[in-house]
Specification:
Layout (H helix, E strand, L loop, with lengths): L8 E2 L4 E4 L16 E4 L12 H12 L4 E6 L5 E5 L2 E3 L4 H16 L3 E3 L4 E4 L1 H12 L1
Antiparallel strand pairs: 1-2, 2-3, 4-5, 4-8, 5-6, 7-8
């Protein structure tokens, strides 16, 4: 991502990055050093999620630990579980649909791997879920 050194920007942790400036407003160090101010409210980025990805993100945001578990059945089927709700019925087509939802959330940085069969919501994921709930 390119930006001009004098322009403030918001980083992935919802901190407002501001180059040190003199009173005239010109940058002193041309982007070599920055001050960070944590924003009390960070607007969620615009993301285009499928209905399944939205449902999974919203339920994961409500989970006390913010986790998605990928579970398998004795017959070899798989499903997801978060905050007491199961996603999928173990069939191959449902597995593929919910795996696509996981891949979307990973691609947008809304969840991250937390182990072999565990995913954790990110701060950005929490902000996006908050925005979806407000709609």
């Amino acid at each position: 991502m390119s930006h001009r050194t004098n322009e403030p920007m918001i980083d992935e942790h919802c901190r407002y990055r501001v180059p040190p400036t003199v009173q005239s407003g010109e940058s002193i160090l041309s982007g070599q050093s920055f001050f960070y101010v944590v924003l009390s409210y960070c607007r969620a980025p615009a993301v285009d999620l499928s209905a399944k990805a939205r449902a999974l993100l919203l339920k994961t945001a409500q989970d006390p630990a913010g986790l998605i578990l990928k579970l398998t059945t004795l017959s070899g089927g798989a499903f997801l579980k978060s905050n007491g709700r199961s996603f999928g019925d173990g069939t191959a087509i449902e597995q593929a649909r919910w795996e696509t939802a996981i891949q979307q959330l990973l691609r947008f940085g809304l969840i991250e791997p937390g182990g072999d069969r565990v995913f954790c919501i990110t701060l950005g994921g929490s902000h996006v879920a908050d925005g979806l709930r407000r709609r």
